[in-house]
């Protein structure tokens, strides 16, 4: 997913909710907004994460109506900047000045649905037998392309195929809204105009250059397009003409699509020959305060603390650095996450998303399901309950950051500290049990 894209993928499990999470036609759209344990919305590459802003002055009915009435004037004011970018007047008149605003987007921009899906539900939804089978078919059908791209960029073909599969179900569900209209609407109406002006102008550059045909430039309501969901600005940074036809076509050209996605990951810091992470077994006496994204240690150091790879497999690279992730707390599976896991999170900043990518890649490669069971009896907290949990922690002097129902790093650290104070495993998991203990004190 490149760019704003979620820009759309999402959960209640992660903590950083991008304000402009994009519309999806596939199941991922059901999960915008995750924090450890239940899902938080993945933002897409290049999209600054922002909290929801109900009541923003540019989102009032009057402000939206006034901006819609001046839509043509707004577009005309953007012409000089388009010209500075090399867009011709003919292109601008044909594709920009002819637009009308898509007002449905305003409802989507500030939608705040309730998310109650767990981390494991998210993985169940995305890593399916059908996706695994189709991914293997795609890899076999385009073997020569993946061979060439892997040689050129050093990025794992299975990860690229997994992104393709999860972002658009291998091209079936990429969105049908015209990118120019969507980005023009958001550039002139609503609270994210400054961000989307660049996306709108970049989309015009794509059309002016002829990289993608106008009828193919369709995607999410936020403007992400193509099977791996590029935002227009991300397209400018990463798209490549791998088939040599003079166009960077990430919609219809498989070589360009695969290579552009690989280029994105490579420039984000992908380490060739390294996997994304390992499922591990944590000893009962383990200090769970070490399970923090900021706590990086070598695989060898983790082994010295009693961490073992699930299935009694050896770690192939003991010098790699990793952090310990407990997405379901001490009762669920544990994982050591390597550099490439963080790279995938740059594509979409959600731990659940990145794990789905890594696990789908491994399954397509012939790997097995995770060996340890998820705590499927654990009830996921509602947004109101997560907000209450933050307020109760804050009232007891713990720093939770912004109290908004999104369980970010500070809230998880506060949960760990509270758990340690009551003699519970400090795993940072926002369970119903933790909430009940807070209520009782």
Task: Describe this protein's structure.
With 441 residues, the protein is mainly alpha-helical. The chain has a domain at 383-440. It is built from 18 helices and nine strands. It has helices at residues 61-69, 71-84, 89-95, 104-109, 119-126, 129-141, 143-153, 157-168, 179-188, 193-209, 232-238, 254-267, 299-304, 339-347, 351-364, 383-395, 409-421, 432-440; strands at 34-35, 38-39, 177-178, 218-219, 277-281, 297-298, 308-309, 321-325, 334-337. A five-stranded antiparallel sheet has the order 6-8-9-5-7. A hairpin with an 8-residue loop joins strand 8 (321-325) and strand 9 (334-337).
Strand content: 5-15%
Largest sheet: 5 strands, antiparallel
- The sequence of SSEs as H and E is EEHHHHHHHHEHHEHHEEHEEEHHHHH
**Oligomer designation:** single chain
Please tally the helical runs, counting DSSP H or I stretches of 4 or more residues.
18
Computed CA radius of gyration, to the nearest angstrom = 22 Å
Residue windows where pLDDT falls under 50 for at least 5 positions: 3-53
Helical coverage, percent range: 40-55%
Distance between the termini: 44 Å
pLDDT averaged residue by residue: 87
What's the total count of β strands? 9
| Major sheet strand order | 6-8-9-5-7
Inertia-based shape:
globular
Q: What structural class do you assign from the helix and strand content?
A: mainly alpha
